[in-house]
Amino acid sequence: MDKEFALDPHGLQQAIDWMGREFSTLESLDLPTHLPQLGMGSLAALNSLAPSILGGAAGLGKATSFAHMDPPTPWITWALTLWNASLNQNLLHPATSPVAGDIEKRVVDWLTPFFGMDGGHMTPGSTVANLTALWSARECAGISEVIASEGAHLSIAKAAHILGLTYKSIPINAQGSIDAAQLPVNLSQSALVLTAGTTSTGAVDALDLAGKAAWTHVDAAWAGPLRLTKHAPVLAGIDLADSVAVSAHKWLFQPKESALVLFKNTEKAHAAISFGGAYLATPNIGVLGSHGAAATALLATLLAWGQEGLAQRIEHAMKLAQHLSEFVASDERLQLYAQPQTGIVVWGPKDASLFHHIQSSLPVGSTSATTVSGVQWFRNVAANPQADIEGLVAAIKDSLNYNRHAT
Ligand SMILES: *Cc1c(COP(=O)(O)O)cnc(C)c1O
Question: Model's pTM, two decimal places?
Fold first, then answer.
């Protein structure tokens, strides 16, 4: 009996104890340059890694964190991830995932109606979800090109490249969404990708363009979960799409890697991207081979919170973004790129020379930067419902006032 494969409550308790500790300084990683010949033992490895992995990590759930699409994750997902690691189920084959496979189907069934789709499957991210959807589009609709706005995520161009499809980029309007007037008239050979919440500015493309092309894919990686909230109308028209991508590791508060690709006609879409194999009882659908049980953490979260608990957290995050954008709009020294649609606030000083000063005075991890049409902006993302927006507003005010006294 090899104890390394058995439950070690003492070792796991130690791992949990480390999680509760505060680390005052960022711990850097100090590792041997080569693979060690002899092992130090599991407990020693755990203790040697804890300070740098825990103490050196970006604090995504901290009160100051309001910069990126990566949310804090609820503890129930930590527990399910631990179970997943120990069980190591493989959803490639029902024999290696008798329950986990059904759980993924159930989670997909729960979520598809909010998007007007009829099924789909989980992927490790929307990058893979977008690739999968465009692969189906190529097989089912015979498309030869992919059209998306300049604000589309790079995974769309990447998917076109992998699939051997021409990629056409359409300019954005002043709100950051696709300039529909510049779309080609003939879309009969095209997959049109509409973004519901662009990565840079959170803009939502006109989703009523869905249906105008041979295939319409909506990349709702970021803003898709708004469909489960009172903000659902922001994504009105998404149900007209042929496929939808949603990242669960963004606004569904899941640990990476967790996302969904959904289809209007799943039977047809899945059939087009299925491969049989001698040892496989059921065809292998989609891009992945072996594939883990990320669905169990999502299921547990949805059971724990219900739609209401999830919606409350997203709606609260939306309120934080709204508060920040109202502050920016009210301060004559600042300007908004556009009214935020999906919890992403893009703003900057009217006097561009103040940009770097403000940037260096804001708390680490509070604010990111983005370049839109050649102009640099600050960017805040409402992924963290625990963010302290009063604190961020105070820090922005401080940085502006400091500068006024200095000049
Ligand atoms: C994050 C994002 C993606 C990529 O999703 P991953 O889950 O990071 O692979 C695609 N599109 C948009 C609009 C995104 O915001």
Answer: 0.96
